[in-house]
Amino acid sequence: MSSVDQNIYVKLRDRLVSGEFEPGQRLRSDELKKDYNVSVGTVRELLFRLSSAGLVDFLEQRGFRVPEPSMALQHDLTQTRIMLECEGARLSISNGGVAWEARLTAAHHELKHIETHINQHTFDGSAEVLSLWRAAEMKFHTTLIEECQSELLKEFHENVYHRFRQQLITTDKQFAHMPENVEQHQSILQAVLKRDESLVRKLIYSHLSRHLTLLPEKVVSVASR
What predicted TM-score, i.e. pTM, was given to this entire model? Predict the structure, then answer.
């Protein structure tokens, strides 16, 4: 895939994850090609790639559509994200040095600034602010695991993160959990800097577990293992 096509792929993926399209909405190649000044064939290739990543549904004879929300899928994605981040953070604490701590602190500083701004003002649904927050939030969590020394773990995490965000965009668009997000991200950073692996795992679970959708007795906490 060329760098131009990769750039379009990322832009289209971000639109899907940011809730620009409605759940179940049909994605028409002949319309999307106008947004990026490319051929229908190129758009279809990108949509097939996005369907392989789970961000687009492809139905024979019906084309491409935005996935519908699913409580079961949300639960599965949340569980998987918890497992990946707990293990990725544990390995990063073991392998990462001062430079990693500095990058994580810088990523948190950016995220905290945006989250504090949102928390102190009435959010109007601005796509610009939503995009800034999503990018900063992802940067913090990917930096958290970036020293795990497993490219496969990081690749899985990136895919799960985007699908997780797509599932939650309808509710998270209103930033209902922003006050606790500010505190939780701060606590995760502090635990990392103390090199407290057990506490980091518990805090990651606490941070994400509100998105689990099955009954509590059916939930297995990775943080408690």
Answer: 0.88
